[in-house]
Predict the structure.
Amino acid sequence: MPQTADDMDAVAVRAWCSLALEALGRERAAIDAINVYPVADGDTGTNLYLTVESANQAVEAVFAAHETGSTTPLTADAVRAMAHGALIGARGNSGTILAQLLRGTAQVLAVGHDADHLRRALATAADAARQAVAHPVEGTVLTVAAEAAEAAARTAADATAAEVAQAAYEGARAALAATPGQLAVLGRAGVVDAGGRGLVTVLGALVEAVCGRAPAAGPVLPAPALPVPDDCAAAGPADGPAFEVIYLLEATDEAVDRLRARLDPLGDSLVVVGGDGLWNVHVHVDDAGAAVEAGVEAGRPYRIRITHFGADRVHPHVEPVQRAVVVVVPGDGLRGLCKEAGATTVLARPGEPPASGELVDAIRRAHAREVVLLPNDAELRHTAAAAAEQARAEGVRVALVPTRAAVQGLAALAVHEPGRSFDEDVVAMTAAAGATRYAELAVAERQSWTMAGICQAGDVLGLIDGDVAVIGGDVPHTARTVLDRMLAAGGELVTLVLGEDVPDGLADELEEHVREGHLAVDTVVYRGGPRSAPLLIGVE
């Protein structure tokens, strides 16, 4: 992460996307809680997170393509990838507008990326977003974006990119604080605009990307302590259109102009963003079929998503089961083991954690009314939470058990009991996971500072509960040391998951070590298979 930046180069753009995703992950639930406009469906934070997740993945793909060489991607490549990723991954009204804000930003930063171009990019973004909305309303994210751009425009001609970003952030925060006085539904609920708060979060990440530190100011007007009043859902399902329709569309500019005219009288919250032949269409309607037909007349619609506000939905062709478990696994061996236990699995490849969309797809594949989600990775907590929220919006009851390692997931799966109540099952699985300490052996790729001292490339690292606790020269010795440290605090069962390249003799050696040094402790051994770590350890 840069300490300071004179411009918005490709590295700064990458940092911005990553930091924005992390920040929206932290703020997602709070933003969802204040979502009362245009529909009080509590998903604005989730939709923004999913949109930025898609943008971040696109930028990371650009950098991955350059890893074989020594060059850094051009800024133009990075910002265009950001805009394209947001466009194809945009969710909901708020995500669609954010995608257009990022597209407007990219149009200018692709040409130049100094402070002046950043200033102009923010103005272009605000104008583009406003033009994309059929009927702009003040007191929303559009107002916040406009005020951010105006604040940036007032900075001195010789201002740095950091100063421009900071000014935009402060302008956005001031505008956000004023939104309850501009939009009656917000004032009655005592909240700020959810989309606007999301934009403030994204701009805060921009400040951190170019300054090297997060802005000091905290969030503006948190969620109300009391439930949102019923009359604050005036634009919601009871009085508004029944369906949200979103699709990507390949069409000409002229065809999209006709599409806007066709969709506008069908409903509300019409937002059409994009350009250069690819568009993202969002509208709330009562006749979802007519909205899709309008897209067919305009060009080629695909990735069509239709959500019935407030309605429970299951797969139309499969009789749903009552309950299922969806688990993220780090290797093919554990994948097979979990499948045998009846779980639906998602494979986590090294360096490629699953996106929220993959988790949602797995929840759908489970065809269950109730789903317990086991992410098995602390880094997936925001991704899993966003996936769970999206699945809930589709009518599935989802409980997220915050497992931080595969061995915790195995412990939870072992006590899963479909016959008891959902709440009791979740409590039992959560307790089993929480009672399991976890460790992992990994090989250091380079010299680095750790909690256990300095390691060199090739050293075997023993990580206990996520922190490096042991640095060793080989797997067997390091594994024994890690086991002894974990069992010093007690334990009844040791779980060993061996990687593909680890010989079977190691399991026998570690089992004997446990048997000799720790009475009344049982050991079970599984094979992790390809793509798994050299050794995973669980102690219950």
